[in-house]
Task: inverse folding
């Protein structure tokens, strides 16, 4: 897993899972705490995430809210969009362009 960027936009790639969760949490919290306005997470390079990785995203979302910021997900891969819809988190998280629930293939 890698995260590149600054306090306004981060690009996340690789796997966001139990092995990378602690490092990702540290980077995301630092970015949230060190900036102002929206923090955009570009997920276009993300191969996969598990429940732990999703928990890291939700933790960053809550932390951003407490800091008066908003976490915005950009370029969410289709398989991850399905997970967000299945868990109904697409209703809570800010997703650039939204998720076209009707266009997602049924699983």
Result:
């Amino acid at each position: 897993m890698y995260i590149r960027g600054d306090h306004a936009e981060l690009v996340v790639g690789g796997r966001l899972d139990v092995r990378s969760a602690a490092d990702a949490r540290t980077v995301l919290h630092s970015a949230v705490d060190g900036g102002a306005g929206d923090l955009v997470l570009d997920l276009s390079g993300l191969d996969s995430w598990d429940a732990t990785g999703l928990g890291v995203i939700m933790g960053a979302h809550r932390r951003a809210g407490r800091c008066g910021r908003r976490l915005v997900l950009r370029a969410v891969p289709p398989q991850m969009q399905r997970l967000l819809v299945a868990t109904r988190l697409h209703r809570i998280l800010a997703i650039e362009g939204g998720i076209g629930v009707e266009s997602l293939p049924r699983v």
Remarks:
- The first strand starts at residue 2 and ends at 5.
- The helical segments are 21-33, 51-66, 78-86.
